[in-house]
User: What shape does this take?
Amino acid sequence: MRFFQKRLMFLALCGLIFISGLFYQASYSPAKKAEQAAAGYPVAQDGETAPELELRGMNNEMYSLGSFMDQPLLITFFASWCGICQQELPQLSSYYQDNKDRFNMVAVNATTQEYQKEQVVQFVQEGELSMPVLLDEEGRAADAFQVTGVPISFLLNERGTILETYYGPIEKEKLENAIAAAGKEPSRDKAEISSFKK
Assistant: This one.
């Protein structure tokens, strides 16, 4: 009888440890962080000056965000496992390619949230991304912009002020209006999709 009680207590303890592990994983998973961002957890605020950062690109060169601010700049934080990013970034890339004279764009990979770094290379190649892709290998950019989940995008003016923050997918019309307000009119003849948002 005593053996049975010990065995039962051991199994109960194992079950408790297993459930605690599941709770921990659910609390700190990338998907949970994306939900937190969508729920409005703190990020860099509109009207603030964006932090100046220097990040390594996929081509192994170093880039500063300030070097892209000769016109409005859209910064999009993404991860290769993010379903929304997989759908939206190729469309944003195509739109950016057609409108390079109106705004600059960089995609910042949340490298600390990746399962395997090789997946980022595959993501960029398969999506045929035309904008510079920067690697946030130490999480400094995510910390500076107070990013808790992806995708999230920031539109900056030429002075580095954050004009708009986009949680999740970007509606094309809102982006065009924001860029126009920053002083650049959209290239209507080249824009064939009505929205980046599915």
